[in-house]
């Protein structure tokens, strides 16, 4: 994903160079500039800049390890994760079972690793849905303006006014618990943030000279949108998608915790089960799945922070949450 | 447009939004397969005559637009249907729980604003210093935490290991609901709700203060030789507060989400615990009523925010 990101961005180009590509329509010079790109070197520079932020590097490594162990979970732990190893009651952490066992004697470490599958799948699918919806709505609203813009942004306002979690709970309770529903619901309720940001950036960008010149020269809408507006938004979209992933992870865990998900092996549901056992002293049943949720959402924050510093250097000085960004653009 | 007209317009928009949410509720009820009376109509023991009575009781024999009219009128007059589980009017069930939730949310909101504001101010006084980094990281640390899990950790630590605080609920049997008793029950939920929401406020305060400090009139004030402290607290603070006020409406939404989860962990008998319970018992009239009341709370919070903002900022053009 990162690799795709940096070459679409033309990460190596300065703003001046990018301007020139847009401004000088002659094929030769544009192609000459494009041909000069050395992708290996760009990749190297990107990761050098990115890894300068220790936190971001840590987050990335954590997420990579988590993803790999989630993918290969059935090789790391051969056999059915639902197998009960010991007596059907929670046992505290030991060397053999580092996270302890749960109420029916399953290995909690194994359950947490399998739970990563659920969480990461939902995070990436729901994240993609909200990025896609937000980008399309933002681009359309910002580019066309007028009534279309007004209509779309009022819709976004209504979504921002509705209480997100209750809405999600309502929809999940009524639509029935399915994995696809949960991903759709999280995606649908979170797009307005992205739409607002993309819109305001498109708005300011359409005022820029190189877009104006393109328009005067009779460039098609498709060309303007796909050659200029979208590629120039890409870094922003990437940063905000990664910034909203922690929210997705937390929301998803909350849905599972409230017992609205169909998946029996997920971090949120493990916490739901543990509500009945913590008073008996089985703290590990709630502690380790919670640490998994917390670390994953923190890792996404750190990575998005690193991406922000590298991809949108103008925002470098601020360490902000999504809410802060939203407030500033309101 | 004057202030009065602005307020009127805001109120009308808020009313329209509430109307919209009520309509959404109606649509959702009728989109579910079988409609609002499903649990009665699908019962195999119910006779044809009984079916007719149920349809009449729910008003389902009338045309859709009449049903809509009755439904909307009901939403605005407190007729929110009957709870399947409690067999009481949904409005009554929900209304009983509101004070407990407010008792949790209001102190937490005040604490978040005070502590978050303080964090933001300290951070913005010396940006990127050690203290600033520490406070930002501290707020961020809890921001990334699931609200319900933080509750568990606090419970485990204070209740299981230290045995100092009660495990949940609002009053203990022996304490009998005295102020200190309620306070000891309130302490952990409020702390966990505040910690989770702290970053929203402190980071916003900090960044808006930092932005204001970059403005030209601050440079002018410095050039006049005013003291750093005076500039910071008199010139910068006032303007930095504005974006923060704008976002308070949104904070109430986050706080509400946090409250639902926190209440379920601490068995705090408010709207959040009711949400948790009614989802488990599939009590749809209650779930819908809760959605309606949560929406109203957020819409009202946004309205208050708009009004305060209008009063605070003389530059606003009221349109």
Textual characterization of the structure:
The complex is a heterodimer of chains A (330) and B (319). Chain A has 330 residues and is mostly helical. Chain A folds into two domains: 1-44, no CATH class; 52-82 and 108-329, MetI-like (MetI-like fold, Orthogonal Bundle). Chain A is built from 15 helices and no strands. Chain A has helices spanning 2-9, 15-23, 27-35, 39-51, 54-71, 73-76, 108-144, 146-161, 164-175, 179-206, 209-216, 221-257, 267-274, 283-311, 322-328. In chain A, α7 runs parallel beside α14 (283-311) and α12 (221-257) runs parallel beside α13. The longest helix of chain A is centred in the middle third of the chain and has 37 residues, at 108-144. Chain A is globular, with a radius of gyration of 23 Å. Chain B is an all-alpha fold. Chain B is 76% helix and 0% strand. Chain B has twelve helices and no strands. The mean pLDDT of chain B is 80. The interface between A and B is large, with 47 and 58 residues.
Chart the SSEs and their pairings.
The complex is a heterodimer of chains A (330) and B (319).
Chain A: H1 2-9, H2 15-23, H3 27-35, H4 39-51, H5 54-71, H6 73-76, H7 108-144, H8 146-161, H9 164-175, H10 179-206, H11 209-216, H12 221-257, H13 267-274, H14 283-311, H15 322-328
Chain B: H1 3-31, H2 38-41, H3 48-57, H4 64-77, H5 90-125, H6 130-143, H7 147-161, H8 179-213, H9 216-223, H10 228-266, H11 271-280, H12 284-312
Helix pairs in contact in B: 1-4, 1-12, 5-6, 5-8, 5-10, 5-12, 6-8, 7-8, 7-10, 8-10, 10-11, 10-12, 11-12
